[in-house]
Amino acid sequence: MEFIAFTYVGNFISDGLIKEVVFDVFDGANRFFEENSLPLRFLYVGKLKLEPGYLIDIYTPEGKIRAYPLEVLTEVLHARLLNEIEGRSDIRMNKIFALTTFPLVSRNPYLDFFEKFMGIHKTHGELRVMVLSMNPFEPPELSRLLGGSDEGERTRLRRGLEIFKTRLLKGILHEIGHSFGLEHCPNNCVMNSPSSMDEWDSITIGYCDSCFISLKRAVEWSDFPLENR
Ligand SMILES: [Zn+2]
Ligand SMILES: [Zn+2]
């Protein structure tokens, strides 16, 4: 069994709701691995705390946004992964995955939809850091519905949350696929690289047969003791 350290960088507002979304997709991913007999599990290693001082203002055509520079985030995650590995020598783990509630930016100021949508991978030798922003997956009306008190608004909020979680789960499976060497795929498959959120919504949760076989082989291969390879 291979483990992937899992963490998230929280927001200051609506933390309860963010937590619900994060842990539902965490459970959803582990259930997916289990049901598909993939010897792979996420291991929750606690929420990641970043100093608010690292937050920077970025001016985009849609206005000012607050974000963490990616360079800071990946460094902190790399350090966290090293720490976790040191404390858990009994399990096999060389990857860390983080969800952020913030848009991901680098010093190169503004990322377009496509780049924002896809996660970021950084490798340090055998170790891999993965970051996926929850931000682009969030249905735009969700935050507006948060304070809603009437029945109709609450129903729309629940529905919006389900859409949010499904999009995110597919995003997570997409990044996991990349971390085991999968490329983009034209099929109805989470390894598809969509050009819009509508396209992403039309994709079924899961890998197509060919991607699944490649993934399973890669996961099982990495599970094989080094000396027998
Ligand atoms: Zn991709
Ligand atoms: Zn595929």
UniProtKB/TrEMBL annotation:
Molecular function via GO: metal ion binding; metallopeptidase activity
UniProt xrefs under InterPro entries: MetalloPept_cat_dom_sf (IPR024079), Pept_M54_archaemetzincn (IPR012962)
Protein keywords: Hydrolase, Metal-binding, Metalloprotease, Protease, Zinc
Organism this protein belongs to: Thermococcus celericrescens
Entry-linked PANTHER family: ARCHAEMETZINCIN, ARCHAEMETZINCIN-2
Pfam families named among the record's database cross-references: Peptidase_M54
Cofactors named for this entry: Zn(2+)
Name of the protein this chain belongs to: Peptidase M54
Biological process terms in GO annotation: proteolysis
Upper classification of the organism: Archaea, Methanobacteriati, Methanobacteriota, Thermococci, Thermococcales
